Amino acid sequence: MRVFGILFYTAVLILIGIALIVLSFAFTFPGLQSQTSQSINDMLLYVQQNAHVKIIIAFSGGLLILVSISFAQLILGRFQREKTIAFKTASGEVTIALSAVEDLIRRITNLMPEVKELRPDVKANKKGITVELRVVLKSEANIPGLTERLEEMTKGKMQEVLGLEEKIFVNTHIVKIIPQEEKDKKVQPTIPFSGYGRV
Amino acid sequence: MQHNDESITGLGAIKIHKNAIASITSIAAVEIEGVKRVGGNLKSGFFAIFGKKTYSAISVEINKNGEVRVEIPLIIKYGYNIPDIASRVQENVRQSLEKMTNLAVKDINIKVRAIEKE
Predict the structure, then answer these.
(1) Domain definitions of chain A by residue range
(2) Which of residues 36-95 of A touch B (CB under 8 A)?
(3) What is the pLDDT of residue B31?
(4) pLDDT tens-digit profile of B2-36?
(5) What is the CATH number of domain A95-177?
(6) How many Cβ atoms are within 10 Å of A41's Cβ, its own excluded?
């Protein structure tokens, strides 16, 4: 089905391309211009007058839409299948979307006050799972220590929650370090109108 | 044509619609602690726009032998062990389907779509 879809789309696109090239050539040469316009007019008139042709064109359009939808579903399905981690249990298969794993890693940000933002990108291949972490730090913290802790936490959390036995590789990129925001200055509560009435 | 999810009694035929199987599956899945909700898909999202919330993203297939295969998209709560939750959901769904429909359950496939906070 997938091969048929690819062949179909290739054929349709090639035909459209050829038709456009031919049309542009036909309109380029003055001798062919009137002839081409006449042929197009004749063809449109024929479609307009013949009920059967209209029905055939409408059906072709419908078929094209259906084939497009099924082809899009195939591509999307394949795309989704590739972006999951799967394992089998006695009752069936369990697949975990890599975006779900990314969600899980993003939650780690809440556990580390030094991390302002964490953008994980998880890839699964035969070697194992590779996690690319793009980190925005809040302050000039000790980067080697912090990244080591972050990598340990990521690995630990993934193994704990996902129960994965595969190798996990964590690569960290510090993309930005932003200065620590000044903590809200403690403002003494003032008594309303306290400045009045004193002489 | 006889449907696979159809059983015949002395008084007539009993048909169980796939939507009924999907509903049982959905209820059984969210009963498990750690499951936030059943995830959606494009079709269920489209139907939800028009206020039709009955369309489930759970896919149900019944083969020629009358065996049921269900696929459940799940959103799991943060902090729970996914394989543990998945196997508990599979067990609960299997028990509920067998108890309520008498159908043989072949596969219960879980798709963890996302992790959300409680």
Answers:
(1) 2-82, 95-177
(2) 84, 87, 89-95
(3) 93
(4) 445 667 677 777 888 888 899 899 999 999 999 99
(5) 3.30.70.1350
(6) 10
Nearest chain B Cα distance for residue A120, angstroms: 14
The pairing of beta strand A92-97 with beta strand A115-125? unpaired
Answer whether B108 sits within 8 Å of A91, measured CB to CB.
yes
Q: Which two tokens stand for residue B38?
A: 């059943």
B108 and A87 within 8 Å at the Cβ level: the answer is: no
Q: DSSP letter for A182, please.
A: P
Separation in Å, CA B81 to CA A8, A126, A163, A199, B76? 45, 23, 7, 69, 9
Topology annotation, domain B16-116 = Alpha-Beta Plaits (3.30.70)
Distance CA B82, CA A100 (A): 11
Which of A73, A99, A161, A164 best probes binding to B when mutated, by most B CB atoms within 10 angstroms?
A: A161
**Contact criterion met (CB < 8 Å) for B110 and A92:** yes
Distance CA(A17)–CA(A90), nearest Å, equals: 52
Q: What is the DSSP letter of A192?
A: T
For A52-111, the pLDDT digits (tens) are 888 999 999 998 888 888 777 776 665 555 578 888 888 888 888 888 888 888 887 777
User: A129-187: per-residue pLDDT in tens?
Assistant: 889 999 888 876 788 888 888 888 888 888 888 877 778 888 989 888 887 665 545 55
Q: Does A170 touch chain B (CB under 8 A)?
A: no
Chain A: residue nearest B117 by CA?
Answer: A107
Higher-confidence residue of A48 and A190: namely A48
The ipTM value here is 0.73
CB A131 within 8 A of CB A121: yes
Tell me whether residues B84 and A163 touch, CB distance under 8 A. yes
